[in-house]
Amino acid sequence: MDPDLPGPLLRGRGRDHLRRGVAISARPLAQATILTVVAGIADAVGYVTMNGVFAANMTGNTVLAGIDLAKGNHLGAWNHLTPLVAFFPGAMLARVLVRLFKGPGAAILLEAALIAAVGFLPLTEENAVMIVAFAMGLQASAITSFAGHSVSTVVVTSTLARTADAAVDRLWPGSPTPPPSAVNTWLLALTWTGYLIGAVIGGALLPIMAYPLLVPAALLVLLLLLL
Question: Contacts from 22-28 at CB under 8 Å and sequence distance 24+?
């Protein structure tokens, strides 16, 4: 009998599968949390230092561009739409790198390098946010699944809605659909929380660090150790 099956729990190694299950569950949770913290920092720093433009939240940029267009502020609309032009090829490149290298490591490493370098380059605000948006596009497509669950690490609106769905399904007995797994519930909750924490960290770093984006770059290096 396989010692990793639930039956032989009284054997010496009988609970190894439980310990490994905890480890397997913890790693994707940590990965998703780190990535959303990175996106939160990038968005906070970008919004404050780059003329109210988000580096990761393309939904926000689209809405702000629409508001600017309604006001006749075409320059403001252009500034909010240009990150989308950078984000999209970044996501495409991540897909290429994942297929070439059979994993997300190369895309995440490139993202970390871009975020770390952008503060040291003689760039205008517009060019700086384009580079960070390109890096966020890399992140968006480099890792899209955690422990078999699809979760975005750069957009949290849909994540919040799925968290609400999961909460109702777990609390309502006799639901026609099976309740979500504990891993999926934690992923949903932690990705939204990580994004908020990242935004707080980004806002706190701005007054005390000349190059606040070095922090998310360091977090991405840490993430590489978890891949």
Answer: 24/147, 25/147, 25/182, 25/183, 25/186, 27/147, 27/226, 28/146, 28/147, 28/149, 28/183, 28/187
Place of tokens 């393309």: 58
173-182 confidence digits (pLDDT tens): 666 666 556 5
β strands within 18-91, DSSP E: none
Query: What long-range pairs does 102-110 form, CB within 8 A, spacing at least 24?
Result: 103/227, 104/142, 104/143, 104/227, 105/224, 105/227, 107/138, 107/139, 107/141, 107/142, 108/138, 108/139, 108/142, 108/143, 108/220, 108/223, 108/224, 108/227, 109/220, 109/224, 110/135, 110/138
Instruction: Give the percent of the chain with pLDDT over 70.
Output: 85
CB 58 within 8 A of CB 130: no
pLDDT bucket at 113, cuts 50 / 70 / 90: very high
